[in-house]
Amino acid sequence: MLNLHFGKLLQAAAIFVASDDCCRAGDVPQTRQGETISALDGERQPLLYWAPDTSAEESTPLLVFLHSWSSDYQQDNSKWLQACAEHNWIWLHPNFRGINQSPNACGSRFARQDVLDAIAFARRCWNVDPQRIYLAGVSGGGHMALLMAGHHPNEFSAVSAWVGPADLAEWHRFHTKNGEPQKYAVMIEQSLGGAPGTSAVVDADYRDRSSVFHLAHVGDLPVSIWAGVEDGHSGSVPIRHSLTAFNTIAETHGDPAISETEMSELSTLKKLTSPLASDQGRDLMPGKSILLRRHSGESMITIFVGGHESHPAVALEWLSAKRHAVTVR
CB within 8 A of 179, min separation 6: which ones? Predict the structure, then answer.
């Protein structure tokens, strides 16, 4: 009965949609605010959106972009919005419970449902191409993008995740110094009810919200993982998170994993002593040296010379080549 009630709320929710002209290169369009009502608990969640004026009639790709760890839907991600508008794609910037410092944020089932509800919002408003529903995120958004890929692989056509933590227990340990949890470890504890090892219930929640335990379910969903080799040194997320996430996908496909030796070299030496031919190219990343690139099916990982950063044009170029029909809800 409760689900039926929220279903009626969703249908009754007012949706205000305005169209904007397609952007010229270099322009950042004006976003508008919408709202979803959670199919799980009825919580109202804001979002920002932009859509080309042709999207009501013409089948149009959708990019769902996920804000970072310490921010919410109002975060300035204009460089990603601009790239999206230049491709003439619909842009969604959902809140999914905002900053990761409360139990229903930080990749909870409620936060994950908010992302799915945002897609449903878009499908009610515009003619969304069901083979081109893309998901992307950076840092905390990268964490959520990989988590959505693992928990809901049939809902997306392709996923681009940048510099995101894949194992929250490991990330908590990284941000605990001399037994004292630092900023991100404190936020994790606020979200998950304690440090790893607090209880069996807490540990189960760590697993539920860590993509490394779910990416074996991605199947044929294309997932691209990107990280700068300096991250974890000058940045907050060691590249081992990205490498381990990719290995989970590769092992599921029966493809070779990145070896422990290679992961150690990249993490300490910041290079490979014996790179493969695939590690030498610069395609998709002009001006950036590639230190490692591996493929598994349509998924791939790239470790590049850089830090805790993202490159929207690179992400959208890779996403734009992917067509993958999603489950229609």
Answer: none
Q: What is the pLDDT along the chain (329 residues), one digit of tens a residue?
A: 334 333 433 333 333 333 333 344 457 899 999 999 999 999 999 999 999 999 999 999 999 999 999 999 999 999 999 999 999 999 999 999 999 999 999 999 999 999 999 999 999 999 999 999 999 999 999 999 999 999 999 999 999 999 999 999 999 999 999 999 999 999 999 999 999 999 999 999 999 999 999 999 999 999 999 999 999 999 999 999 999 999 999 999 999 999 999 999 999 999 999 999 999 877 778 888 999 999 999 999 999 999 999 999 999 999 999 999 997 66
Residue 326 lies in a domain: no
In a domain, 160, yes or no: yes
Q: Could you tell me the CA-to-CA distances from 43 to 36, 37, 117, 134, 255 in Å, in that order?
A: 8, 6, 11, 24, 42
Does residue 142 belong to any structural domain of this protein?
yes
Return the CATH number at 109: 3.40.50.1820
Q: How many domains does the chain have?
A: 1
Q: Which residue segment(s) compose the domain that 146 sits in? A: 2-320
pTM: 0.92
Going through 207-253 in order, the beta strands assigned E by DSSP cover: 223-228
Cα(138)–Cα(308) distance, integer angstroms: 9
Instruction: For residue 68, count CB atoms less than 10 angstroms from its CB and return exposed for 0-12, middle for 13-18, buried for 19 or more.
Output: buried
Domain membership of residue 37 (yes or no) is: yes
E strand spans, 57-203: 60-66, 90-94, 128-138, 158-162, 176-177, 180-181
Query: Cβ atoms within 10 A of the Cβ of 167, count?
Result: 22
What is d(CA 268, CA 119) in angstroms, rounded to the nearest whole number? 40
Closest CA to 144 of 119, 107, 109, 193: 107
